[in-house]
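Thread: quick sanity check before group meeting

JM: Hey all, I'm pulling together slides for Thursday and realized we never actually wrote out the predicted structure for the chain we discussed last week. Dropping the sequence here so it's in one place. If anyone has concerns about the input, flag it before I start.
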Amino acid sequence: MTRDEMNEHNNKEAVKDQNDDDTIVTNTVDDTMTLIERELDQLRIVATGYGFYDQKPTCILSIRTLIRNTNQDLLNDRFKERGRISKMYSELAELDVSLRSQGYSGEQLISESIFCSFKPVMVFNTKIKLELYFKCILSSLEQLKDASCFFNFLNTSKEEELTTMNSAAEKREGYLIKKEGILFGNWKARYFILNSNSLDYYKFKGENELSVVRKGTIELADAIIGKQDTTTENQFGFLILEWIKKPKKFNRYLFYAYSEEERKAWLESIGKVIESLGSTPMTTRDFLKRLAGRENYSYES
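JM (edit): ok, ran it. Output follows.
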């Protein structure tokens, strides 16, 4: 896919206008240059997810402008989302070199090892540090000799890997981080597709369309879902307990989302599927009560 085709794809994907009462209003990326020149003091860049391009990790950045009623309305979190761009680390590093050649001396770019790590604590640090990095850049743009490299960075993008939701079919898909093995396993990014009775996952997006054998399937009938604690290690973590009838046991799967909004959306969608299968979605507290009344079960982690 060429750059022009990618940008055309972005423009088609990022066109969702919401009602005045909603938080996000999304426009295309085409107006980014005008937006920056006109509303630079209200511009925000937020890390909203991750994906892959040519099997290399990318970070999805949301370009937003705040909506304030007055100049004193500093706590207003309403915003317009002008578009989303997906960037590899090499593109971030190239931007950093260009900015410093124009006089930028602010926050350091995170290391590539942190950017490419899928350990939950590293993912959380990447999000926080990238947002701080861009906040410092935005506050320094007017002092740079030439800021065109930054504008160009925002107006060129790799194809986005966005989590999508079909509300009618309760079908959700997107990247999540999954623990491969519980005790000593590594965290891996996998592409998940929520179906009417299961959660399938692949190594990369699009493999299901290419008839690639999926990495695994989690059956959702009688499954139990729940949040993990809110420590930095599991800031946006959740789990699924898959009930296996023969032999009677629970298989545990641990996941990590990129944000609280993303975690909430996945839990709600999975919960609706469980409910549609005739079960009542349970929290981990309900799980303990359920085990107390179940005989001859085993629990595998």
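AS: nice. Confidence is low (pLDDT under 50) at residues 1-30, 159-169, 294-301. Residues 120-140 form the longest helix (21 residues).
JM: adding both to the slides.
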